Batch of 2 targets.
Target 1
Amino acid sequence: MTGRLLRRLLATGLVLSLVGCQASAVTTASPSGSPRQTGRPSPTPTSTPTATPTFEPTPTPTPTPTPVTGIALLDGMAVEPARAQRLPLAVMIDDNVAARPQHGFNAASIVYQAPADGGEDRYMLIFQENDAAKIGPVRSGRPYFIRWAAEYRAAFGHYGGDQKAQAYSWVNNGKLIFDVDALVGAGAAYKRDSSRKAPHNAYTNSDTFRSVAERRGAPKTIVTGLGSRLFADDLPADQRPSSGSINVPYNRGASTYTYDHATNSYLRSIAGKAHVDPLDGKRVTARNVVVLFMRQSVDPESEPGYRRPVLDQIGSGRAIVFRDGKVIEGKWVKTSDSDLTRFYDPSGREISLVRGRIFIQVVATGTKVTWKAG
């Protein structure tokens, strides 16, 4: 062999040897179809790295906005600002036995009860922040009720009145009151209930009444610059008595109250029976009961053929204020027709009332009002 041939053979063998080495690393299929490794084992596969979890930041809760409230001028209750500013509605209510039960008491802010002619008495319900779907029966006005309505520059609702009441309403309409007289252009505010006999069957509701009053020139909101009474939060329960009662006599049955410690309110009864408002089916309650003693006389000139009562409501007189189950004896003061009647203790300080409905019970001087403290 020549050197040149030998070198070719060596080169060829080297190539074959290299090819055999590469072939021994090829993966072949086994009879079962599963892959098997021949020659050198395959390197262990590298595991897939686990992803690092990401965390979303916890959202900061949006604080609930504190509701904006106003304080109702008439009874000191915290209410929506729009309701706190509404024009008061003062409506005359019948208290003849045939008129009972009357509607609307539990929606009123202030309730007046006072003597009327014929040995009867009448109510005046004053509404501000609350509405009532039925109010009545509505009856005629009297001058002293109009003067109380004037304290709040209220829309005054009534079904006519005696000559002096009518004249007073006409002169002061748009000034001290906003007259809503069923017999003088405001009949749309009232309707008759056929289930009752006239004259104890005229009714209104707060929505219709407000609408008619506004059409007749009354403002939507309370007149600015009016005086207001002082209001305070309830006494703590451990400072209030456990019970108590009040008795205010009237010719058609006494108005009585039983103090309820749990609610710090007075449960009302008439002529010995629980006073229930058919509008909501609930017992009528007061948070404050104020008794005003006024000199009562008869006006022989009020109207031909009638002897209408007169109450000396301008000036001052004895007052008893019941609140928080306690009794404060003092005096009332009213300086003019338009001035607010205020209540003072024996030291001359104005008496504050608890927030909520006020019943003002007006009786003739000398009337025997009794009470018991628990």
Note: Confidence is low (pLDDT under 50) at residues 1-55.
Target 2
Amino acid sequence: MSKKITKEEFLEKLKTDSEFNSRYGRKHITEGKMVLPPCHYGFQVYTRELSLNERNELLNKATDRNHKRENCFSDEEFERETLQDCKAFNIPTRAISLMWNQRSVDTFLGLPFNIASYGLLLEIIAKAVGMVPDELIGNLGDTHLYLNHIEQAKEQIGREPFELPTLNINTEFWPTESGECGIGLLDAIKIFNSFTNDNFCKCLLEEDIQLSNYRSHEKIKAPLSN
């Protein structure tokens, strides 16, 4: 019969016994060999139709001018002309949101990276399906701040944030329905299938995705806690 150990003894053995850690540690958990699920276990997306005003705002941004349509005498005329202009400039008709599920959250070291990663994923999906990125929602479970991260968190909170950068995604060389790069609507199925291609993903991250006017403070070091 195997000897039962306390929680404290279990955690200590994970830190000091490499063989024990290999058998019962994170790798063992994420491979599905234990009941405890991995920290990240899925995401889902949902869409909604953009209102007429929202589409008109996108139209104004795309054309860099204000579409007041002063010659329209009724709501029906305004709607008809707005929809015509939106179609002419290929303005999206729907918005898409993403929600991810996370069992365990390291607030200081992990959560900022998680938010950025899923935010980028939402932007990529929105580009592929021709929609506007909308809400990013984290369904977070065990959300914790470790004792040896408290001072670092206080320092982070006390900083004055910089202006947010602009994310630019170049889709010129993404697969299209026409089969020719840069011509016609993007082919979402081919794009998602391309994610299994290491070369496509490398190009996507290194060349097609760029941040403009990005500024950051000096890094704050914090130990990885288990």
Note: Residues 111-129 form the longest helix (19 residues).
